[in-house]
């Protein structure tokens, strides 16, 4: 019997190996087939003394290949040459993968499960005619630059040689943001946007944007899927960390500077285009639940503050000439018709954004609005097509096009657009209007004339010493000192090197460079404790849901008891990373000193604690005093928590008392 069982097991393993090899072989065959259909590489020609790239390889400088022609002329010429399938392919932007060594991703790999749901590079570029992508992986800068050039080389061999636009979610946060930017790579490390807002320094924020621009362009990233101009008026919302806080005027000033740094005053060959999100403001989520998930679909305005949330887009992003805008998943309760998500609403997308506000750029959906995403038998993302879940993806696409959407995020299905046009449900002229806007950005960015990057220079730019130093200084400027008082009312910070230091949540070898580190709190004169804002466990086993910090904001049970036991045993400096406004009254009361950070290294925290610089940041949101106060707040109103523990704008520096310093709640001047 045992022998028979062994034979069965071995047989199953052999079948599994054959299946896997067949699966990989099928992908490799598809890749070879796609590449074999391509034309030659683009030759360089000269016509009338003008050097041009002969993108369609016909030996003639056509208007769209002429670098001296106007953008409008070039757009209309290439548009007239495109097939319906090519136009449809341009209207999708999805994740794309690369090999760690910089080679093209032409088959799935077990080390990256996303490659099992993301088509290969050649499948998307050659067969599906796609040329907008979001790269989620990080690798060495030289490898990223090499991969980017290989992608552009692949694209230039297609019929019209239309270049690829590579985008990215934020890559500079410390710690890295969840989801799409989790593999950020070697880029310089900065505080999250909350931390940029805490500095109150628009010049610093513009410097960040400019450095991000240089690092992005070095490896071929030309589209930033940020900034977020949502307002953090609902403290439980898991995406608070990506905002500039809850104050509209502060967000306006920060957003303008951020976009200027990335794009410049207008879009050009040195720019990174920005896709500002999530219009018309995704912050007022009911009870703070995330709109990715069905229980978080409702975006509500019990305080009647719709215009307050709209203001950062109107006075910030649009005035700063953001190239693109992403529309929120949420269902605007009492705002959108028929309880549909904002991206399916013509009154929001066309009547408000396009016509009333005069936005002429590209309008995108958020990710996977049309279809569910599954990987290895698990649902990674349930399609947040709220209000139209009963429809097929192609029918949802029709609703979004009629609303005014130009490009679909997180999808790779141009055949839906082809079907809609060929069936007469959507006129091709409607498709042309969206494709024209997408083409215009490519021309303005200079991609048609030179899409390539210098692979040798990339490593010297991305994460360079000056850029890392600028990021470190920004981390310093973003720290907020909330408390600095011992039992005798004397200041605790800064510490001196004579202290015997007990640490938790911090690199002990690094801390040893500042003071004597002891293992036993009983042997210490002071403790340093690094915390992260609390959150509830995921409500389901969804892979994506596990990446979001949702639910209550307070420490509970044994976790709180352990913290308070330490603070009661000896003077304790507590540093807490606030990706959301934590509820910490007991900790604030018992800690000898309290520091808030929005992304900062151990070294930066230690430098602050030991007086190598003085914290100077101010809270970009209020810290509530209790969960009861949080639940009583109105989701759409700023700073409306009763008796907040620390108000919006609070911040001390060394030499001030705990009651002595708040801002006047006015934004910085530009």
**Class computed from helices, strands and strand pairing:** alpha/beta
Give the N-terminus to C-terminus distance in angstroms.
81 Å
Percent strand equals 5-15%
Shape: globular
Structural account:
- This protein has 670 residues and is of the alpha/beta class.
- It is 35% helix and 12% strand.
- The chain has 20 helices and 20 strands.
- Strands 11-9-7-6-5-4-3-14 form an eight-stranded parallel β-sheet. Strands 15-20-19-18-16-17 form a six-stranded mixed β-sheet, with helices on both faces. A two-stranded antiparallel ribbon has the order 1-2.
- Strand 1 (44-47) and strand 2 (50-53) form a beta hairpin.
- Helix 1 runs parallel beside helix 4 (121-127), helix 3 crosses helix 12 (415-422) and helix 8 (248-263) packs parallel to helix 9.
- The protein starts with a helix and ends in a 38-residue tail after the last helix.
């Amino acid at each position: 019997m045992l022998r028979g069982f062994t034979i069965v097991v071995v047989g199953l393993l052999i079948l599994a190996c054959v299946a896997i090899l067949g699966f990989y072989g099928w992908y490799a065959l598809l890749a070879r087939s796609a590449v074999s259909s391509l034309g030659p590489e683009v030759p360089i020609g000269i016509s009338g003394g003008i050097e041009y790239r002969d993108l369609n390889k016909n030996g003639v400088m056509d208007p769209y290949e002429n670098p001296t022609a106007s953008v409008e002329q070039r757009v209309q010429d290439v548009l007239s040459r495109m097939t319906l399938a090519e136009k449809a392919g341009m209207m999708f932007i999805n994740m794309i993968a690369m090999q760690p060594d910089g080679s093209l991703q032409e088959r799935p790999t077990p080390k990256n499960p996303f490659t099992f749901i993301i088509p290969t590079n050649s499948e998307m570029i050659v067969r599906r005619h796609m040329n907008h992508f979001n790269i989620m992986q990080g690798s060495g800068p030289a490898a990223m630059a090499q991969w980017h050039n290989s992608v552009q080389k692949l694209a230039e061999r297609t019929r019209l040689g239309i270049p690829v636009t590579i985008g990215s979610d934020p890559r500079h946060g410390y710690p890295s943001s969840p989801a799409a930017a989790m593999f950020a790579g070697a880029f310089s490390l900065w505080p999250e946007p909350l931390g940029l807002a805490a500095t109150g320094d628009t010049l610093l924020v513009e410097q960040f944007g400019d450095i991000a621009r240089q690092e992005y362009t070095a490896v071929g990233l030309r589209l930033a899927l940020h900034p977020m101009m949502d307002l953090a008026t609902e403290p439980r919302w898991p995406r608070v960390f990506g905002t500039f806080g809850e104050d509209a005027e502060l967000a306006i000033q920060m957003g303008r500077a951020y976009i200027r740094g990335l794009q410049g005053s207008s879009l050009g060959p040195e720019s990174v285009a920005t896709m500002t999100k999530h219009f018309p403001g995704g912050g007022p989520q009911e009870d703070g639940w995330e709109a990715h998930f069905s229980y978080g679909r409702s975006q509500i305005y019990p305080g009647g503050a719709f215009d307050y949330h709209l203001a950062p887009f109107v006075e910030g992003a649009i005035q700063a000439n953001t190239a693109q805008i992403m529309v929120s998943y949420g269902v605007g309760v009492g705002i959108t018709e028929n309880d549909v998500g904002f991206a399916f609403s013509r009154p929001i997308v066309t009547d408000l954004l396009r016509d009333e506000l005069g936005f002429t750029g590209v309008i995108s959906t958020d990710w996977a609005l049309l279809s569910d995403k599954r990987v290895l038998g698990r649902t990674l993302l349930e399609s947040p097509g709220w209000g139209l879940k009963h429809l097929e993806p192609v029918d949802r696409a029709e609703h979004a096009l009629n609303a005014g959407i130009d490009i679909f995020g997180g999808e790779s299905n141009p055949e839906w657009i082809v079907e809609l046009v060929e069936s007469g449900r959507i006129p091709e002229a409607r498709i042309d209007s969206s494709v024209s806007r997408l083409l215009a950005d490519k021309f303005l960015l200079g991609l048609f004339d030179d899409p390539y990057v210098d692979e040798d220079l990339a490593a010297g730019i991305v994460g360079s010493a000056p850029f890392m130093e600028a990021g470190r200084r920004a981390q310093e400027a973003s720290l907020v000192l909330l408390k600095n008082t011992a039992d005798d009312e004397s200041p605790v910070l800064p510490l001196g090197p004579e202290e015997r230091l007990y640490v938790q949540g911090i690199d002990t070898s690094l801390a040893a460079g500042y003071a004597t580190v002891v293992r036993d709190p009983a042997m210490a004169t002071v403790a340093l404790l690094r915390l992260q804002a609390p959150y509830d466990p995921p409500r389901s086993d969804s892979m994506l849901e596990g990446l979001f910090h949702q639910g209550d904001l307070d420490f509970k049970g044994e976790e709180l008891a352990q913290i308070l036991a330490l603070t009661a045993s000896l003077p304790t400096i507590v540093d807490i990373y606030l990706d959301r406004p934590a509820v910490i009254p007991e900790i604030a009361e018992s800690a000898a000193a309290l520091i808030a950070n929005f992304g900062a290294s151990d070294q930066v925290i230690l430098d602050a604690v030991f007086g190598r610089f003085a914290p100077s940041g101010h809270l970009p949101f209020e810290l509530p005093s209790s969960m009861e106060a949080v639940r009583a707040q109105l989701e759409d109103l700023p700073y409306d928590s009763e008796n907040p523990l620390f108000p919006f704008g609070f911040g001390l520096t060394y030499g001030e008392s705990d009651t002595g310093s708040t801002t006047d709640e006015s934004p910085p001047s530009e």
